[in-house]
Write a sequence for this structure.
């Protein structure tokens, strides 16, 4: 299995030399491992997968992975000869900003490499599902040290307005220590939970939140980075 590292500032998934090949399944597995680490707590989800539906008889629909704002990069080579690198075992797609954003190439350029993406196709047209996600908007009143939050739940790309139970928002410092947690059980008619907390935020300090919104179908938990307070 190739050695992968995740460069957060450059948003690159790097394949270490001398590895020349990466499978979609390896990319997915290693990315999920990374997102579960303490290092990735301030990183928004950037990889989404679809496929692998069991068609029966040992046949499965191929896997499609979409990278949002991130890309795969094979290590630069010293040259002067060029090496061929490849991504295989499914489909790899790049998007900007969101799953519905503009298409971008999912493999970053690197010195003295030539990359081939062996995309897989099938006779079926399969729409990539939109993942369920809990969202959070934040505004900070520095004078009154007041954090104003709006939380909501989307399933299949639509805001949930019926059957909502509660929303829990937990804030964390950059070192992983918990800053505070708050719960609200009164969404408005548009499915939004409006929450206010008196809490001072330090300037130039990153924070991240874990937002859990529950409805009749269960709880959806999503992690969000919070812009630095100024």
């Amino acid at each position: 299995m190739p050695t992968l590292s995740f460069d957060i500032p450059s948003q690159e998934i790097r394949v270490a030399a001398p590895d020349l090949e990466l499978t979609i399944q390896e990319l997915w597995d290693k990315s999920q491992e990374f997102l579960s680490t303490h290092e990735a707590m301030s990183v928004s989800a950037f990889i989404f997968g679809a496929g692998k539906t069991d068609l029966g008889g040992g046949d499965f629909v191929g896997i499609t992975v979409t990278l949002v704002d991130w890309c795969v990069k094979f290590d630069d080579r010293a040259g002067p000869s060029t090496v061929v690198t490849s991504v295989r075992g499914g489909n790899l797609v790049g998007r900007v900003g969101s799953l519905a954003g503009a298409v971008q190439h999912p493999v970053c350029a690197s010195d003295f490499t030539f990359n081939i993406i062996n995309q897989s196709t099938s006779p079926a047209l399969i729409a990539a599902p939109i993942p369920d996600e809990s969202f959070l908007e934040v505004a900070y009143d520095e004078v009154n040290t007041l954090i104003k939050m709006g939380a909501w739940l989307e399933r299949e790309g639509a805001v949930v307005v019926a059957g909502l139970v509660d929303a829990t928002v937990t804030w964390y410092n950059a070192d992983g220590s918990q800053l505070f947690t708050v719960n609200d059980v009164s969404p408005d008619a548009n499915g939004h939970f409006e929450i206010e907390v008196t809490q001072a935020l330090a300037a130039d300090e990153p924070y991240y939140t874990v937002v859990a919104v529950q409805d009749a179908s269960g709880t959806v938990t999503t992690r969000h980075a919070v812009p630095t307070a100024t």
